[in-house]
Write a structure and sequence with these properties.
294 residues, eight-stranded parallel sheet, Enolase-like, domain 1, 2 domains, three-stranded antiparallel sheet
Amino acid sequence: MTVTDGQHIGRGEAVPIRRYNQSPASVLAQIESIKSRQCLDRQQIQKLLPAGAARNALDCAFWDLEAKISGKRAWELANIPLAPEVKTSFTISLDTPAAMAAVAKVHATAPILKLKLGGDDPDLARVKAVREAAPAARLLIDANESWTSDHYCKVAPALCQFGIELIEQPFPADADEVLETLDHPIPVCADEGCHTTADLPRLKNRYEMVNIKLDKSGGLTEAMLLTERAREAGFKLLIGCMVCTSLGIAPARLLASAADYVDLDGPLLLAGDRHHAVSYDNGRIGIPPRELWG
């Protein structure tokens, strides 16, 4: 996605999320629906488009344009202190315990591994296998809305022995009220349950942490506000992403400096990345190059 003032060009990237009935065609249609409006800017698109991939692409493109017009980096415009590097988790997709352990062994020196679990009997075996293959790595798990209450009660306490630091979205977002009645031996993080600041009051007694993704929030502008309001409400922060290139990671990287956890491994899951890519060095993400974004 590009925007221009006639002299400078700003770029943004977004990933349509099937979970929310988004597709490349629907995202393009949303963008086309406001294309004819005059003098569009970041503030206007917050009102014209709902939170989601379309607004994210436009919002991040406008940030990039503002940076190029001003000659400043985007984080200077946003008044965000940027750490020279941050540690990201590396995601291990749902598979058999042996297959997940094999991937973990290859990435055993990564600082943090995030395991996808499936809400079925092999879940604990998956975690055990990964822990044995990568004994030094910190471990997070993502249940992707797949668990039942019975499974949670059976698995959550047992996960403590493997040093699991958080459980992401164990229950479907529209059925997570059960978290108000269950013990939390490990902090629970909202992903599908948290999109924008409007979600925070509902999450207060259910989660200890929220996963902020620009494709859910509809761009960096709302994500910055969500970060601030979530902190004020007492939540810890995980900055996440979809499977995307470095152009999608660069805006999220601005929020990562002050996050409790960072899960910005999208480009590592692709066969190739963009030119002037964000640098990754054994789980450590550098500063986005000026030629890429912002």
